Amino acid sequence: MSIRIGEVIAVQGTKVVLRIDEQSSKETLFHGGAKYKGVSIREYLSIRRGFRDIICMVEGEYLDESRVETADGKASFIRKVDARPIGFFDRHGFTQGIKFLPMIQDAAYLLPEERIRSIFDRKADSSFRIGRMLKEEIAVGLPWQRLFNSHIGIFGNTGSGKSNTLAKLYTLLFDQKLPRIEGKSRFVILDFNGEYVGEQLAPAAHKRVYQLSTQEQPGGANAGGKFPLAPTEFWDLETLSLLFQATMNTQRPFLSRVLTGKARYDANPGSLNVYAKSKFRQAFCAGEVRPATLDLMRAIARRVNFQALEELLKDVSWHSNQGRFHLGNNYFDADGGRYDFHIAPTVDELDTAGLDDFDQLIVRVNLQLISDLNAGFVQFEHIQPLLKRVESSLKSMRRVLSIGNAAEEERVLTVVSLRRCNNEVKKVLPLLFAKHYYNTHKTTVAAPPDRTVHLIVDEAHNILSDQSTRESESWKDYRLELFEEIIKEGRKFGMFVTIASQRPADISPTIVSQLHNFFIHRLVNDRDLFLIDNTISTLDALSRSLIPGLSQGCCVVTGTAFELPMVIQVDRLPSNKQPASEDVDLEKLWSEAPD
């Protein structure tokens, strides 16, 4: 038996108007040993219609203008509320959606807490709880099976509790499901701010952390380790185009020629030495000599640390009026005689055997450009920017990447921290890692997928922004298209993406539109709210209106895994499990005496 609180007095489409008894305005009521919430905005009511209970959510409240004089002379006002049906109870339980509507004079009742819990908890795991519903203060489980089998978006302004929600979600998952996950799923976090390199999320035995750094480490070593790439993956057109931001129409085809030449002759030992010597001869003895090739040859000599060749090339000069190179009084022409006497003996001692993959790449790029310039395939000014990027990026890339065939020990959770990396690396490497895991997984997984990969991108606006003006449009399009492919096609191969961001409006709309479930913390910017309003079809107007005023740790949860939007106050993690994103306590900081 429940508490009757009023009756239906109007039904206008899907809007129901109820007249509420005066005594039901209390915040909490107890009846028959059960606890009930009084009538207020966003509370749930039951309207009895035959053998079904139609469940409605209160959306508005007002007083009727008319009033009634009671016997003691006091005025009594008629209280009315607007409500919206969200589903119904019958003998099969709760069904979401508007199928039945009440009629005038149907009685309205309060719902006990247990029945409200059954609305939200019926398809969820009651043990998978990250917090309590804000209004009802009921701990509700989340449907983890449907949640982690989807793309997830976690949005909120800085300080709104976004990082705690992300950490709570995956900490609870690993705490409860780790034995069942191991060997079947991998989780990879791209961590821009180094928030998850400690004891967060998973036990150390199941977690691998790469603290990448482009800064010089004491003793010349990289204390945080390097991310391993196989040589076949490094010497790949997509990888090199990503690392060096190659333009689509000129620089990418140039890199393709570099890789084609390597693949053709790489099986022969010493092939690079032979190739280098032939291109040096061609540069000096071509019928139509290109002056830019002299600088390219000097760069190769520096890269292989061949000092004798460096000194020799310093003495070579270009005579524009004759269109050929000179060494003192000797000039070099197409017959190659003077080259064989003055240059070839030194060039023949050139040895590239000790070069690592990065240095070898620079040598091959310079040699290919010498070849293309002499053949008239390219304009030097079109390829030179790529050449400069390859050379300037070398130092940073060598500090964060390790090229080798050593197998990576597979663990459930991999954290890639980019906190100590420069901006160029922060922009490029996350896409390389996403491609690394996506392609590896896509080519090895069965159909249907028997394994999954979950990519978690914290502060996703750093790499998924379509508002950035710091790069060319062609590169930005290429960067976004690569990640859009992963988020659009990855689900078929068992790859799922979680993105967390302070500014969802900065992220590509294509990516946001492909997300299935959302945890939305406080957002106050109009562009962010407009995106949320126009992208998330499962978000009702009342829940949307709460977003700008949500308190810290409170979020609106909605999406395909949830039949109804919920407002949840997420529990705070213990201090040793919290992400390293807490605000500075100035009172404590400034109260400490200086050393």
Sheet with the most strands? 10 strands, mixed
Into which percent range does the helicity of residues fall? 25-40%
Helical/strand content category: alpha/beta
How many helices does DSSP assign? 20
Contiguous uncertain segments of 5+ residues: 218-223
User: What is the CATH superfamily classification of the largest domain?
Assistant: P-loop containing nucleotide triphosphate hydrolases
Overall geometric form: elongated
Oligomer: single chain
Number of strands: 24
Rg, rounded, reads: 33 Å
CATH architecture name of the largest domain: 3-Layer(aba) Sandwich
Strands in their spatial order, largest beta sheet = 10-24-23-22-11-21-20-12-19-13
Number of domains: 3
Name the beta content range. 15-25%
| Average pLDDT score | 80
CATH topology of the largest domain: Rossmann fold
What's the CATH C level of the largest domain? Alpha Beta
In whole angstroms, the N-to-C terminal distance is 68 Å
